[in-house]
Amino acid sequence: MAKIKVQVMRKCAANSRVRMPDSQERIVSTSSLEFIPGTRDAFYIESSMHQMPLKKKYKLVEDLLDVVVKGEAPSLLVIGAGGFGKSYAVTHYLTDKIGLEPVTEGTAVVPKNPSFVLVKGKVTPYGLYTSLYNNRNGITLIDDSDDLWSDKKSVAMLKAALDSSEHRIVSWIGQRTPMMANTPESFEYTGRCIIISNMSRSSFDQAVLTRCLVAELELTREQVFEKMLEIIPAIKTTLTHGEVLSTYQFIRKNADKFVNLSLRQLLNGCKIRSVHKTGWEQILLTQIS
Fold first, then answer.
1. 7-50 pLDDT tens trace
2. I need a surface site. Which of 60, 130, 202, 280 has the fewest CB within 10 A?
3. Other C-beta atoms within 10 Å of 85: how many?
4. Number of structural domains the chain divides into
5. How large a percentage of the chain has pLDDT more than 90?
6. 207 and 107 together in one domain
7. Are strands 41-46 and 33-35 parallel, antiparallel or unpaired?
8. Per-residue confidence (pLDDT) for residue 78, from 0 to 100
9. What does the alpha-carbon distance between residue 186 and residue 183 come to, in Å, rounded to a whole number?
10. Higher-scoring residue by pLDDT: 104, 208
């Protein structure tokens, strides 16, 4: 880890664009910055992963997922600014490379193949306890559920589930709700958790960080453009390859007008252009975040 003084080019609630000491620009989570009052400067905590080439960053995510899927570690935390393809990278690995079938928590679907349970959106402490119990021997993917980290009950349960001890016991002793009627007051959790979050490393409880493998996915400005070019063949759109490419070129030319430069600008640009063959540029520029 290194603490680096950076210049803040653009700041917003989620992500900020900063200029590193070597003049490279990078999109980072705003919560990862320690702002210096009265200046446009801030301190940024950089891990060794940030310095990797693009392909190595995503390969590291897959390598760490492999450790969890094979049961050698109980959990992986994939964090970083939004719009860099964290969710896609994880689900693509689990479904296409490992062959697991996603099952949404709360559905009655019984998968034909080995599966993982997807928990997405708002999760109450009761819901988390029930989900961990129902999938206590399997793989649970928690995505886009950052609210749970502000709830002490939820954090305490995850600490227990992700503990490094031989027997991981998760408990709920006290007031119970009707939805917990079929769950015991405690159970042994032998499953694995993969957690995807837009929060920065500094936003997490230290006890959670020490229990998890961590992949912190941040891209430089040039790596965002590199990744855009990489995903163009996989974009599902009615546009021709040439139209998608020219959409990318427009975004690159006008990159300074986007507060949070990410892969989503290209995806949104293709959607807008599919409907509006003319004037799409002006519409896309209104989507500055």
1. 888 777 667 788 888 887 877 777 678 888 888 888 876 666 77
2. 202
3. 19
4. 3
5. 52
6. yes
7. antiparallel
8. 95
9. 8
10. 208
CB atoms within 10 A of CB 16: 25
φ, ψ dihedrals at 101, nearest 5°:
-105, 125
CA–CA distances in Å: residue 241 to residues 165, 173, 226: 52, 58, 16
Domain limits for position 24: 2-46
Q: In what order do the strands lie in the sheet with 139-143?
A: 101-104, 115-120, 139-143, 192-197, 75-79, 213-216
| DSSP string computed for 145-214 | -GGGGG-HHHHHHHHHHT--SSS-EEE--S---GGGTTS-SEEE---EEEEEESS-GGGS-HHHHHHSEE
Amino acid in position 249: Q
Q: How far apart are CA 200 and CA 207, in angstroms?
A: 15
How is residue 27 annotated by DSSP?
E
**If we measure between CA atoms, which residue out of 46, 30, 74 comes closest to residue 165?**
74
Same domain, yes or no, for 113 and 245?
no
Helix, strand or coil for residue 219? coil
